[in-house]
Design goal:
73% helix, mainly alpha
């Protein structure tokens, strides 16, 4: 159960970081909040 929780946290972290990197690469970095 702990392993599944860690997996969910890692997936959430990747899902949260990936859009920020994409938006940061775009000229419209102001959308990043």
């Amino acid at each position: 159960m702990v392993r599944s929780r860690l997996a969910l946290l890692s997936l959430l972290e990747v899902a949260a970081v990936r859009p920020v990197e994409h938006v940061g690469a775009l000229p419209t970095s102001g959308i990043r909040a």
